[in-house]
Amino acid sequence: MTAQTLIVLSGLPGSGKSMLAEGVSRALSIPLFSIDPIEAAMWRGGLKKDQTGIAAYEVAIALADEQLRLGHSVIVDAVNPIEAPRAAWRSLAAKYRAGLKIIECICADETIHRARIEARRRNIPGMPEITWARVLERRAEYEPWTDARLTLDTSIETPDKLIAEAANYLR
Ligand SMILES: Nc1ncnc2c1ncn2[C@@H]1O[C@H](COP(=O)(O)OP(=O)(O)O)[C@@H](O)[C@H]1O
Ligand SMILES: [Mg+2]
Description:
Elements: E1 5-10, H1 17-28, E2 32-34, H2 35-44, H3 53-69, E3 74-77, H4 83-95, E4 99-106, H5 110-119, H6 132-141, E5 150-153, H7 159-170
Helix pairs in contact: 1-7, 2-3, 3-4
Bound molecules: adenosine-5'-diphosphate (ADP) and magnesium ion.
């Protein structure tokens, strides 16, 4: 990838965003900022859980801004369920005249999605694993995207294939 790009992941918890974001970060040597460890750090720092939903995005935007200002590409790993954060990424890319590439992860097979959520052990200090019931709540709030994007169904391909497909989309 030659042009400077802001790469934005989106998708429900357990849809495979972090797997993909980490693979692409390694494959293309692009820095990655992930919302969940940022939010967990805020909780460990004493902030209440109802104070950090928007704040964690603000931190990720600030970190991504710094990388773009320095001329780097950057990957952001977050659910991005509604218009407000999506608009923030559009305007950040525009600020630096960087390309914006959106990769939406879905796990179309609900049985697989649920099994992945229930088996996952991420070991993010201070952040418990999410329940399937909470994923269903988040699914009800998740708005469809209309932007041009790559949509990957992580229930039907191996991580290696998905990472290669994403890297190809970014080239
Ligand atoms: N294509 C895949 N094949 C097998 N397991 C996968 C695949 N994609 C993701 N996973 C696993 O599913 C779980 C959820 O993926 P994760 O990347 O943590 O989702 P998210 O970051 O969207 O919440 C993880 O344990 C991950 O290793
Ligand atoms: Mg994740």
